[in-house]
Design a protein that fits this description.
Chain lengths: ~200, ~300
């Protein structure tokens, strides 16, 4: 099988199906079907787990392009859309957890929270970006938007930075996990910047 | 409401978990019925639609399960995850245990814990416990009233505050090898707060000795303050003139103060303190001023601006 076949018939379907894994894990735990224990504070567990999974999916999405350039396996680019859509799905679940478990759908308090608390403000902004990217992820939208699509979808970098700050600003003391996400993000962005610099440099 | 119960609930009368777990379903149904009846009456009296019920009286105060109380803990000496203390605290050796008493006090010295507490009556108290992170529990403690120990030790006139130090021993508390916090953990109270009859030095919960993850063998319990005021695994008690600098205040003075009174009207700089999630619930309930103990303790702070008491 060629690389293109591998990506199209094995890796991409695995990503499309595999992305449901974390949600399935939580869902089974919530229903008490398996031995998964969501602990004493399941609402908090669901919130943190969906948030962390969003960041993991986002980092994986941003890994596709550097990996493609590094390996020269161009069909890998086809993983970007399913990974991006899984990122949005977990961001949506995360936002729903916040809206229901933290705020009991009290919209006045939610708006107040978004306006007043920096970590909510940046988290909400990142969610709005991911929503816009998910809504314009179809082939039809790509054709319709043309060059503007590329510009719009560069906002993923903004969403990633906001997402890391969202995590960093809510932590009480132990910042090791959000800092680790920050380091990964810096490496992923540096890989792109390095390439631009080399391409742009005079021969 | 806890605060309207007689203060002492004997351990023998605490309902076993298997009973109250089944009772919970009944209570929930009863609560909904009661709310519906009240709402109907209000509606009939006013002749219009009732406002949504958001008052704390709509919420029950059942004791949190032993499992949740002993597996969901903040005790950074054993890790920063909520489940870390239950996993890692086996390295703590709560006996033999000695407590150093120093400062302006007639009976300073190093005491064996059992000698220090000998003869002081043990009380059972079921208290709400409100963490600064906006979750809460209901915990059936047993222990002594701190005032009884203070009276035994006879502090002098310069003892305006009392300071508590947690054990500092990297072999027993492995996270103390890191510098995530200044060690040892220090907490303190003003002397009138310390002498208040609600203030406990807990030695157990659910009628059993404290488990290591809950601060064995001796921890402070101040139910109208955020949980971090409750220093755990106490090895030193100091009677001092100056207001102690407690650990969280040292770490982030704009976020954590000395008083740390539960107050839904004063937000943490980063999150709201208006509501809390009772462990076992999915949705949040309103937080009460002084965690529901205002009748007993609000007078301690007469003339002070509540906004400075975070």
């Amino acid at each position: 099988m060629t690389a293109s076949h591998w990506v199209g018939r094995v890796i991409r379907p695995a990503v499309i199906v595999g992305g449901i894994g974390p949600a399935l894990y939580l869902g089974l735990g919530l229903l008490g079907i398996t031995a998964i224990d969501l602990g004493a504070n399941p609402a908090e567990k669901l919130e943190h787990f969906t948030g962390t999974t969003t960041l993991v999916m986002l980092m994986l999405t941003l890994t596709v392009t550097p990996l493609r350039r590094l390996t020269g396996v161009n069909p890998l680019i086809r993983l970007r859309k399913p990974l991006g859509l899984w990122t949005f799905t977990y961001a949506l679940l995360h936002a729903l957890c916040y809206l229901v478990f933290d705020q009991s759908l009290l919209w006045g308090e939610i708006l107040h929270d978004i306006a007043k608390r920096p970590y909510i403000t940046v988290g909400f902004s990142a969610f709005v970006i991911l929503l816009a990217l998910a809504l314009t992820s179809s082939g039809w939208a790509i054709r319709k938007l043309g060059k503007r699509w590329v510009t719009l979808h560069r906002l993923i970098y903004v969403a990633a930075v906001l997402g890391v700050f969202h995590y960093l600003w809510l932590v009480k003391l132990d910042t090791s996990t959000p800092v680790a996400f920050g380091v990964v993000l810096i490496l992923l962005l540096a890989a792109r910047w390095e390439r631009r610099r080399r391409k742009g440099a005079p021969a | 409401m806890l605060i309207r119960r007689p203060p002492d609930i004997p351990t023998s009368e605490i309902t076993e978990e298997r009973h109250y777990v089944s009772r919970r379903a009944w209570l929930a149904a009863a609560g909904v019925t009661a709310v519906a009846i009240t709402a109907n009456r209000v509606m009939a009296a006013r002749g219009k639609s009732p406002a949504p019920v958001v008052g704390a009286e709509a919420f029950a105060d059942d004791p949190t399960s032993f499992k949740d109380i002993t597996t969901y803990n903040n005790f950074y000496e054993f890790g920063t995850g909520k489940d870390d203390p239950a996993k890692n605290a086996h390295t703590l050796r709560p006996r033999p245990w000695s407590v150093v008493v120093e400062g302006d006090v007639k009976k300073p010295g190093r005491y064996d814990l059992d000698d220090l507490l000998k003869g002081i009556p043990v009380v059972d108290r079921t208290y709400r416990h409100r963490c600064v992170e906006a979750w809460s529990m209901v915990i059936p403690w047993n222990g002594i009233q701190l005032k009884d120990l203070i009276n035994r030790l006879e502090p002098g006139t310069k003892a305006k505050y009392i300071e508590f130090h947690t054990l500092y021993d990297t072999t027993q508390m492995p996270m103390q090898r890191t510098n995530i916090m200044p060690w040892p953990y220090v907490e303190g109270l003003r002397m009138d707060e310390a002498r208040h009859p609600l203030t406990l030095l807990a030695t157990g919960l659910y009628g059993k000795s404290l488990l290591n993850q809950n601060g064995a063998p001796l921890r402070l319990v101040v139910p109208w303050k955020y949980g971090f005021k409750g220093g755990k695994s106490i090895v030193k008690i100091r009677f001092v003139e100056e207001q102690p600098r407690n650990s969280w205040q040292l770490l982030a003075p704009d976020e954590y103060g000395f008083f740390a009174n539960v107050n839904p009207a004063v937000d943490h700089p980063r999150w709201s303190q208006a509501r809390e999630r009772r462990i076992g619930d999915f949705l949040k309930r309103p937080t009460l001023p002084f965690n529901g103990y205002a009748d007993q303790v609000a007078s301690l702070y007469a003339g002070m601006d509540p906004r400075t008491l975070y």
